[in-house]
Amino acid sequence: MNEKAFGWTEIIRLGLVQASLGAIVVLMTSTLNRIMVVELTLPALLPGALVALHYLVQVSRPRMGHGSDLGSRRTPWIMGGMVILAAGALAASFSTTLIANSPTLGIIVATAGFIMIGLGVGAAGTSLLVLLAMRVDGQKRAAAATAVWVMMIVGFAVTAGAAGKLLDPYSPTRLLAVTLTVCATALAVTLIALFRLENDPGDIIPEPVAASDAVPFRTALADVWKEDAARQFTIFIFISMLAYSAQDLILEPFAGTVFGYTPGESTSLSGVQHTGVLIGMLIVAFVGSKFTKGRAGSLKLWCVGGCIASAITLTGLAIAGFVGEPWPLKANVFLMGAANGAFSIAAIGQMMRLATEGRASREGVRMGLWGAAQAIAFGFGGLLGTAASDLTHWLIPSTGIAYGSVFAAEAVLFIASALLALRITMIEPAQEDTEEGIGQPSYS
Fold first, then answer.
1. Do residues 282 and 393 touch, judged by C-beta distance below 8 A?
2. Residues 6+ apart with CB under 8 A from 225
3. Which pLDDT score is estimated for 442?
4. What is the pLDDT of residues 386-401, one digit of tens each?
């Protein structure tokens, strides 16, 4: 196969697709969540269960990755996933017009919508990452992953801000109109960004796998699970992302009850954390692209170091629970965000490299397996964090110490993640990737 390596133009085009995906998802998981609880006065459990459902559905990612492995191109899977995602978002928004008069029917439609959202994110997200992994040369992977994820965060921010203004005064019809606008814009951007992305005149497009030669999905998945690196990385992704997401729903309540933060102040604290995440990502991207040969550019080292730093900052939050207000909470949260950003973007860079190692034509299955592990971890992370918080508050009279115990447990998970990351065996390619073409590694 002779495929030209993606330059920055192609990487930015894929970033636009990721931003479009993020725009639809944030509208559903954030804005719709608030509308169901506040405007529709529904139990908070309902939107929480719907968001968890969209993560659970993403266990189908390996199967979708296998389907893209059998085809000749990844872009049809990305476009198809975006169409399903948009259709699910419209169904979920439409359900708000039904719930007032027919709650049962409205909940059924919302459930179907979030199932489609999960399927769409799985199909589009998995194939997009595989395309990045296969067509971006090694020295650009950390920077490329950062660029794509930063664009997704921009998609979150722009959509949340614009949709918030357009939704006032709220009505179900207005929500449906805003959702339709966001989905139509996202699909148009995706279609333009993907146009001839895999049909460069310098490319030789591989033929799809013949039906007679196609390997069953279970066989392909078993082959991938037998690979030490793929199996170890799957466990690492699950544990690290569990630790990463477990503090999401308890950080703001902790700041409010222990440090006396107002709702506005605790919300701004979340902004401080996300600023740290962005800076951590940019540091890894810069250092990784400048020092490709030494330890400073090692994605594995950044992955391990980021997990250890995350554990240290979570230990700081545990101490904050003991000492209270004198502790520099904002600085602690900023550093935690930076550590989280460093480890997560290094993990994505490693994911892109490992996806192309091992048995050929299994890239989609590997990426799907890791995406499923991440989705399951995110689905359970918030639940685990809040459940642990409730349990410790029941067992421990002191609110600060109860929260601190949960943060300390999350720190232990990050230490375990660092140890798992150290064990991941990397197969060294026989030749370096080049700008002109992606070198095919040989394996022993």
1. no
2. 231, 369
3. 29
4. 888 888 989 999 989 9
Specify whether 164 is located in the same domain as 239: no
Does 438 fall in a domain? Answer: no
- The structure's pTM equals 0.81
Which one-letter amino acid corresponds to residue 312? I
Q: What is the reported pLDDT for 29? A: 80
Domain end, chosen from 130, 163, 196, is at: 196
In a domain, 71, yes or no: yes
Measured distance CA(42)–CA(40) in Å, rounded: 5
Residues 242, 288, single domain; the answer is: yes
List % helix, strand, coil for the chain (3-state, nearest 5). 80, 0, 20
> Same domain, yes or no, for 177 and 74?
yes
> From CA 145, how far away is CA 149, in angstroms rounded?
6
Q: Mark residue 196 as left, alpha or beta (left: phi above 0; alpha: psi -120 to 50; beta: remaining).
A: left
The predicted pLDDT at position 73 comes to: 81
432 within domain boundaries: no
HSE, side-chain direction, 13 A CA sphere, residue 147: 20
If asked whether residues 103 and 44 sit together in one domain, one would say: yes
Quote the domain boundaries for residue 133. Answer: 1-196
In the chain, the number of structural domains is 2
Distances, alpha carbon 228 to alpha carbons 61, 212, 358, 373, 381, in Å: 20, 29, 10, 16, 26
3 state SS of 237:
helix
Same-domain status, 246 and 277: yes
State residue 205's pLDDT score: 53
- The low-confidence residues of the chain, meaning pLDDT below 50, are 1, 201, 204, 210-212, 294, 296, 427-444
Do the Cβ atoms of 54 and 117 come closer than 8 Å?
A: yes
